[in-house]
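stuck on this one:
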Amino acid sequence: MGPYILRRLALIIPTLIGIMLINFILVQFVPGGPVEQILARIEGQGDVFGSFAGGGDDAGGGGTDAGDGYLGARGLPPDFIEQLEKEFGFDKPAWQRFLNMLGNYARFDFGESYFRSISVVDLVKEKMPVSISLGLWSTLIAYLVSIPLGIRKAVKDGSRFDTWTSGAIIVAYAIPGFLFAILLLVLFAGGSYLKWFPLRGLTSDNFADLTMMGKVIDYFWHITLPVLASTISAFATLTLLTKNSFLEEIKKQYVMTAKAKGLTERRVLYGHVFRNAMLIVIAGFPAVFVSVFFGGSLIIETIFSLDGLGRLGFEAAVSRDYPVIFGTLYVFGLIGLLMGLVSDLMYVWIDPRIDFETRET
């Protein structure tokens, strides 16, 4: 298994470079870079330029009239624009900026945000608790509910239980996450009905003053509704995937042979079928985890006033904060590729008969 792991790790490098290169090229064609963003803000705020450039005496004083003091009318000094471009590194050709970026990222040096005056690493650490909470609990709940439910549906295939549960999970899948989140707020967070859960945030204002047990209760009190809203659509796919996988295995000859030997249904199901049927479910774990953890949380975070990686990525894209955009893309891309390798290792752990060593790469 060692050589296979080394080959997969070696393939991560060119794959990650390809991801970064494609996105870097695409960004070059998007108008309104960080320099243009700053210039637009300055021209729209009058004497903000004076404080920004250190020229407070020139802005609105010394006998100049109102027209002369208006920066949008006067235009910005070319040397100031050149200074901005140099500060952001845009005085260098694109290929050189890309190579410099890769060199820094290889050392996990992601630089500093253009507009927040904080390093990208510290910014991600600041937003990470929200995304970890949503991603971890949503994935855990989805698997804890969907796998037993899918197994039960496979055993009771065609029964009334199977029919009703299929209808319920299809309806749940059809409900948009943001609509369900709003419904939860209206019903349980001080809308028109009950006020059982808080309206916003991950913790209460007095969180630091609470006891350890109080902090745990307060945390789960705040995270319940966002997790439910982000999990509802994950049940359908995972439940039906588990059911179909078990149905396929139950019909195989070795299951009939095990039953003919007198083994109980539970022993056959969990001693023989489970290991084979769960392979395809585990194969989808990295995609489920990464999608819930890093994507699709923007709307949920906005509705519940949570400041996580979803909002961070959106705000960085809107403001053209390139260090945040590419830094998070690099880290999340690396994690996604590593999760693919973890998925293969879990294959082998569940079924030792699988041998990736003999597979050609």
